Amino acid sequence: MSDHLLTLNAGSSSIKFALFRADLGDEARVRGIADGLGATARLRIADDGGWRDAPLAGRAGAPTHADALAAVLRELHAVAADARIAGVGHRIVHGGARFDRPVVVDEAVLQAIRAFEPLAPLHQPHNVAGVRAAMAAFPGVPQVACFDTAFHRTQPEINQRFALPRRLFDTGVRRYGFHGLSYESIVAQLGERARGRVVVAHLGNGASLCAMRDGRSLATTMSFSPLDGLPMGTRCGRLDAAVVLHLLQREGMSAERIAHLLYRESGLAGLSGLSGDMRELEASGTTEAREAIDYFVEHVLRELAAMAAALRGLDRIVFTGGIGENATTLRQRIVEEGGWLGWRIDAQANRAGRGRISAPDSSVEILVLHTNEEAVIARHTARCVASAIPPAGTMDDRCSGRSLTRP
User: Fold this and answer.
1) Cβ proximity of 215 and 195 under 8 Å
2) Intervals of the chain under pLDDT 70
3) How many angstroms from the chain centroid is the CA of residue 178?
4) For 190, which of 11, 291, 317, 355 is 20 to 30 Å away at the CA?
5) C-beta separation of 371 from 363 below 8 A
6) Taking a C-beta distance cutoff of 8 angstroms, is the pair 315, 198 a contact?
7) CATH number of the structural domain spanning residue 331
8) What is the pLDDT of residues 175-206, one digit of tens each?
9) Beta carbons of 368 and 335 less than 8 angstroms apart
């Protein structure tokens, strides 16, 4: 038996997972994803034998997050029976103002995380369910919460505030920002190139941009919740707050109905009337699908300009996420339509879809990098597990939470 670290990353329609040897390195022994949850779901696993499909059945209709978690644990036991789980790391979308670093989870921490569920209803309940499931599957093993919001706590206060009465900021009504684990992964990959003014475009079913100076978050497009900023698969993105008042007061919609509309029926799916999946929209060719894609490109360009303004200039753009890494034509459109800023794309490099895709005469370097949130979570988990038994009564200041006995 050898020590391993398990990471669980529950998104709005997927669960990513990875199994790392405890001596680390960023390469997972086993990784996989259950995606399309709640609809046409599938489970795929990659180990030494390459990618393969695995069974994923729902107890009643379409497979849910709970079904996927059960299937993931079953498959991991089958392919890595020699793995002794020394720690489980979890992506937690919302950490509020309280959590600015990874923490070892106890019941008090878990209850605090649950309190943020109304601010991230597509993610937080599944994050909590993942922690509960892992606690049951691996009793006594340290569970480590890694927060998407923590990366953005370096932002100056002016970029964390809304133009609302100051007392509301003190109660937690502020800009938090999300996708922090993805941005942390990109910073690690950039190394010295993270110095200067960089905008990272995490484009996927959830989408945001982050302006970074010297590898630290300065501004980002998501704010109080993962609803703000860019249009997404089923989320509306930036919206005049008076629209919500109109729906409440004039349309007679309840708060719950509006929440469902904005989180689950809007974005690319609402605009196209077809799907929130960019691949389906690009294949469709309908007028509505083209309009949805046009809207997405337009707002990526607007927000890119806003992030460059926050940085007072721009040295580098990085595309990542499911759309950012794989939608070749979309990337080309964004760069070419930003060509008035001096951006230039190397079409052949763009088709290859990795590394530098900007032409030699481009005013900024443009890259495509694969985000590896699981490796970031594993590194944080390793540090927290190592400090779970604090020597001589001390606690590593990179982690907090109750002391746990390693199994």
Assistant:
1) yes
2) 12, 24, 38-39, 58-61, 388-407
3) 7
4) 11
5) no
6) yes
7) 3.30.420.40
8) 999 999 999 999 999 999 999 999 999 999 99
9) no
Residue 262 covered by a domain:
yes
286-319 pLDDT per residue, tens: 999 999 999 999 999 999 999 999 999 999 999 9
Q: Which residues are catalytic?
A: 148
Angle between helices 373-386 and 180-190 (to 10 degrees): 90
What letter represents residue 107's amino acid? Answer: E
Angstrom distance (rounded) from CA 23 to CA 28: 11
pLDDT of residue 50: 85
CA distance 7 to 91: 8
Do residues 205 and 342 share a domain? yes
Distance between CA atoms of residues 83 and 102, nearest Å: 24
Structural domain count of the chain: 2
The sheet with strand 197-203 has its strands ordered as: 216-220, 207-213, 197-203, 316-320, 365-368, 355-356
DSSP state of 146: E
Q: Are 85 and 78 in contact (CB under 8 A)?
A: no
Residue 306 burial (10 A CB sphere; 0-12, 13-18, 19+): middle
CB 15: neighbour CB atoms within 10 A?
Answer: 25
CA distance 376 to 65: 22
Q: What single DSSP character describes residue 391?
A: G
Instruction: Note down the domain range covering 89.
Output: 2-153+373-393
Residue with tokens 């923590």: 150
Amino acid in position 62: A
Q: At residue 15, what is the residue type?
A: I
DSSP secondary structure string, 262-288?
HHHS-HHHHHHSS-S-HHHHHHH--HH
pLDDT value of position 397? 39
Residues 378 and 322 placed together within one structural domain of the fold: no
Tell me, yes or no, whether 400 lies in a domain: no
- What end-to-end distance do the CA atoms of the chain give, in Å? 13
CA dihedral 97, 213, 314, 189 (to 10 degrees): -100
Look up the pTM and report it. 0.89
Are 142 and 282 members of one domain?
Answer: no
Strand partners, 192: none
The amino acid present at 260, given as its one-letter code, is H
Residue 264 lies in a domain: yes
Quote the CA–CA distance of 234 and 239 in Å, as a whole number. Answer: 14
The amino acid that residue 367 corresponds to is: L
* DSSP state, residue 214: T
